[in-house]
Design goal:
The complex is a heterodimer of chains A (75) and B (490). With 75 residues, chain A is an all-alpha fold. Chain A is built from 3 helices and no strands. Chain B is elongated and about 260 Å long. Classes of the chains: A mainly alpha (75), B alpha/beta (490).
Chain lengths: 75, 490
């Protein structure tokens, strides 16, 4: 399995696998591998729906320490 | 009346004031309509009266300024009209068209007595201000700036600009925290006023704070609700609208009102009529993610199963046709083999028969040849036997003659040989008689023995030994007295 992917990539890869399978581009030999990968991706996506990792204290600390960012009007 | 002091008439301040008051009252005896900017309302809660500060500006500079009086009852009535029509109270910084009289009070000086204000004029002006904000944003090319951001697939981390006690906030949190799908959001409140003149700078200030920690958030939600439709012109404020447009992550609004959309709502990434709807919008984003995931799960399961079944079917099909073909083939070859084996048997039979026949022929030929050969051989043997008989008689006769001759020769020769040998024997006999010991003894010789042994030397006897001496006619026994022996030279 490649390095940790974010949920957006997981979502896209999952869609890709579905379309691959739907278009019959996957042989029976690859199928098991693809299904296994899809299961991992689904798990990752479902997990993302149900959890967040933000920490209020960390944000408040950053708010206190960060300097005012220049409002860049051309962004 | 003025005091006289020399050539001077001296008026008291009160007299002057009264005079001005009288003049002005006579001159401005009726009311008239004036338009002006109400810089400050200057409402006094205690008395209920207002003392608005009216100005007129030209190119940013004040070119006229005058104080006004708005008495409690008038204020109350006019304010109601405003709230009805503009959804805004009378407030600082609006343009008004008012009916007034010039009033002069000796103590308070010159003022315009505001008797009525036309809310329609202010409405038009506010509308114009709103249009102006929109126009400026468009001119600067930032009107759609916030809309162009990409909302993350899961707008999960929300920076909320609201008031802790807002009913709108409560509605919003109820939806996102208590959703039935176990969707999880993270949110942090950045408290701000949400209506009235101070709302715009307060919101801008919080936006500035959020900007510092924007990496922790997916979206900013401006949430208001439960405050009626009053005091929302702040959302048409150019500075606020600009701050939202230029914000680096999507800003969504749920301000909750029934009147026309404000500029802030227009330019925000997404706007919902109420905080509840805004929360539902976010939930929908989660659905948009979750449903395809579930669909993918379902599709993959189904397709994988179908694929396996179809492969199984295909395999079984191949197997069936393989079996079918094999069986056909076997059947086909079985027939062929049976035919071949039949014809082989037939051919073997023919061959055997043929070979048998030729054997018979050969056998007969051999028998016949053998018979002939035997006949010939018999004749030859008979001839041979006749020859043998004839030959052997001849030979026998010949050999008998030879034998008779040899027998005669043998007779003659053997008789001569015997005569010879007898003569020889007579000579030998004579010699032997000469050598006989008896004849020796006769001549005087004797033989001496000791213990049966012939004594040939004096050494062989010692004095005292008994010795026997044989002579021709008897024997003598003696005891040795002495023996000698020749000296041996060697």
């Amino acid at each position: 399995m490649k390095a940790k992917i974010n949920y957006t990539e997981a979502f896209e890869e999952l869609q890709h696998i579905v379309s691959e399978i739907e278009q019959g581009e996957i042989s029976v030999d690859e199928l098991s591998e693809k299904v296994k990968r899809a299961t991992e991706l689904i798990k990752l996506c479902k997990n993302k729906l149900a959890t967040t990792e933000e920490d209020v204290n960390k944000i408040l600390t950053e708010l206190d320490t960060a300097t005012d960012e220049e409002e860049d009007e051309d962004d | 009346m003025p005091e006289k002091a020399g050539d001077r008439s001296i008026f008291s301040l009160h007299e002057v004031s009264r005079s001005i008051q009288k003049t002005l009252t006579e001159r401005y005896n009726s009311s008239f309509w004036v338009k002006a900017e109400m810089n400050k309302l200057n409402y006094y809660k205690h008395s209920g009266h207002c003392y608005p500060e009216l100005v007129e500006k030209k190119e940013g500079r004040v070119i006229a300024q005058i104080r006004a009086n708005l008495w409690r009852d008038d204020y109350s009535r006019i304010n109601q009209n405003f709230l009805q029509l503009l959804k805004e109270p009378l407030k600082d910084g609006i343009k008004i068209l008012f009916r007034a009289k010039v009033s002069f009070d000796p103590v308070h000086g010159l003022a315009l007595w505001i008797m009525d204000i036309d809310p329609a004029f202010t409405l038009g002006d506010l509308e114009a201000e709103k249009l102006e904000t929109i126009h400026r944003l468009q001119q600067e090319g930032i009107y759609n700036r916030n809309k162009r951001h990409a909302l993350p697939l899961l707008p999960q981390r929300i920076a909320i600009i609201s008031v802790e006690t807002s009913k709108g906030l409560a509605d919003f949190l109820k939806v996102i925290n208590g959703n039935d799908w176990n969707y999880r959001f993270f949110h942090l409140l950045f408290p701000s006023l949400l209506q009235g003149d101070h709302a715009a700078p307060a919101i801008i200030s919080q936006l500035r704070r959020i900007r510092k920690v924007k990496d922790h958030f997916d979206v900013v939600a401006i949430i208001r609700g439960g405050g009626g439709d009053i005091g929302l012109t702040c959302y048409n404020n150019y500075e606020l609208a600009k701050a939202i447009a230029l914000f680096p992550i999507p800003v969504i609004t749920g301000i909750g009102h029934a009147t026309n959309e404000t500029v802030a709502e227009m330019i925000s990434f997404s706007n919902a009529i109420t905080p509840t709807k805004l929360a539902e919008y976010l939930i929908q984003q989660f659905h948009n993610f979750s449903v395809p995931v579930q669909e993918a799960e379902r599709r993959i399961t189904e397709l994988a199963r179908r694929k396996v079944i179809s492969e199984k079917d295909r395999f079984e099909g191949v197997l069936r046709s393989f079996r079918h073909l094999t069986e056909n083939n076997i059947r086909l070859h079985y027939g062929e083999i049976r035919n071949l084996s039949g014809s082989l048997r037939q051919q073997v039979k023919f061959r055997m028969k043929y070979e048998n026949e030729s054997l018979q022929v050969t056998k007969r030929a051999i028998v016949k040849s053998a018979g002939n050969l035997c006949l010939q051989a018999g004749t030859a043997i008979d001839n041979f036997a006749v020859h043998i008989r004839k030959d052997s008689k001849k030979q026998l006769g010949h050999h008998s003659a030879v034998v008779s001759q040899l027998r005669q020769k043998l007779d003659v020769h053997s008789r001569l040989a015997v005569k010879e040998k007898i003569l020889e024997l007579k000579n030998v006999e004579k010699n032997i008689n000469n050598m006989n010991p008896v004849n020796v003894l006769k001549r005087g010789y004797s033989i001496t023995l000791r213990n049966g042994k012939v004594i040939r030397s004096g050494e062989e006897v010692n004095p005292g030994d008994i010795i026997h001496t044989t002579v021709f006619d008897g024997s003598i026994t003696s005891i040795v007295q002495q023996s000698t022996q020749p000296d041996h030279e060697s």
